[in-house]
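Homework help thread (please don't just give me the answer)

Our assignment gives two proteins as sequence + C-alpha cell strings and asks us to describe the second one. The first is just a warm-up. Here they are:
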Amino acid sequence: MSRKERPRIEPSTLNRILLIRLRRIGDVVMTTPAITALKKSLPHASLTYIVEEPYRRLVEGNPRLDRVISLPPDQGFIDFLRFIRRLRRENYDALIDFHGGPRASRIAFLARARVKVGYELKYKNFIYYIRLPRSRKDGYFHSVENHLNLVKALGIAVSEPPPVELPPARPEEKERIDAYWIENDLEGKKTVVLHIGAGNAFRDWGAGNLAALSDLLAGRSGVRVILAGSAGDKAREKEILGAIRRPVLLLVADLNLIELRELLGRAALFVGPDSGPMHIAAAAGTPIVALFGPTLPENFGPWQAEATLIAKDLDCRPCRQKRCITEDFRCLRSIRPEEVYAACLSYLN
C-alpha cells in the first residue's frame, strides 16, 4: 500500500499479535529485538510466535512471548490444513510475517488477523495490508532493522533498538556446560570456540584453513580451542582432525542451541563464518571474529556485538549463492588463516 492507503492503527487496540519466522538460527535470533520492542510498547498484548521445530528452543522460554507454536520442517498437506484450521479459530489483531518464505506467506494469507504486515514480495503483495521494502534505495537495512521496521509499521515507536536475546538456560542445560568446563579444566584458560560448519559451499572456508587456524590458536600458551558444529559437520570434523598437529576439544553435534549459548558465554572468543552460531555468540556477549564471503555485514553482521569482521572487497559480492561466477569461492577462500589469527590476537593478548 502507499502511505496514504495504509490503515490507521491504534496500537493500544492490539491485544493479540501473531509473529511468523520459521527458520533458520540466525534469522530467528535476529527477530528477538523486534519481540522486545513489541512487548515493551504493548505490555498488555499477548504475543504468539510460529517457528519450525529445529529452532524452537531459540524462542521457547522467551519471557516476552506468551506462546510458541512449533511446526515440523516437513509438514504434510493434511497436517498443514489441520494446523490452519486450528489457527483460524484464533482472531488476531495483528500479524507480522518476519519471513516471507513460501510456507510463512501461506500461513500469513490463511490466518485471520485485522492487520497483516510483511515485506514487499513479488506475487505475494496481496497478502499484506502493510508492506515494506527489505532494502533502502541507497543502501541496506540490517536484518534486525528490517524486523523492527515491521513493528514500527503498526504505529509503535522504537526509540532505542534492543539487543538480540535468547531464553534463559534450563537448570540441566547450565549444569551440563558447568560440568564440561570443569572436566576439561577450562577455568582460567582463554577458550576459543571455532565454528566449523558452513551451511553451503559459499560459506565454507575449507578444512585446510580451519585446521591451520586451529593450530595457530592452540599453539598459544593458555589458549584452548573447541571445535563446534552440528550433526552435519561430522565429516568436516574428521577432515580437520586428520590435518591438525595440536590437540583440540570437540563439541560437534553435542549441544542444543541454548547450551551453545551457555558455552559461548564462558568463552573468550568465537571464530567462524557468517552463520547462526555467530548470532548466538552476539546474544551471549562473546567477542567475535567473523568471516564474510557472499553476504554483507551491513545486512547480517552480529548485532550490537564486539566484533572484527573480515571480508574481501570483490566486485561479485554480495551474491545470491546460486552459482559462483569465479567457480572457486574466492570471496571466502582467499581469506588467509594468518589474517584471522591476527584478528584473534587482539582479543587474546
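The one we have to describe:
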Amino acid sequence: MEGMLRETETAAQALRLHLQMVPAASPADLDAAFATMTREHADAVVLLPSPMLYGQHKRIVELAAKSRLPAIYAAREFVEDGGLISYGASLPNLFRRVATYVDKILKGAKPADLPVEQPTQLELIVNLRTAKELGLVIPREFLLSADEVIE
C-alpha cells in the first residue's frame, strides 16, 4: 500500500494536481471520509485497493454517487455496481493463479520457495451510465482503450 501511495503522489505532482489523502481505517469511517471530500470540494476520488474497502464496494459506490464524485477503483466490481472507472488486476485471473500455488503446496512445495508474482494483465472498465449521471463526457479515444464499456 505504501508503494501505491508514493506512486499516486508522484503522478499527482507530475500532473500538477492537488492530492488530499482522506483515510478510512474501517467501514465506520466511510461516511465521514465522503463528508470531508464534499466539504473540501474534491473533484474526484482515487480509491486505493484495500481488503476492508473491497467488502464495502456497493456502499462506497453509493456514497460517491450521492456526493457526485467521479471515482476510479482498482476492481471491476465497483464499476459493475455503478462506479465510474476501474483499472486493476482481474480478480478471477488472480484466483486462478492462486489455485496453481495451492496445487503446488498440496503436492509438497514449500510456500517460502515459491516465487512472488505480480499481475501481468490489468483491465480498464468504464461505466458510461455513471458518466452520464455525473454529466461527464468520456473521450472516444479513452473508450476505445477500455477492455469493457458498460452502457
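TA reply:
I won't write it for you, but here's a hint about the kind of observation we're looking for: The chain has a mean pLDDT of 91.
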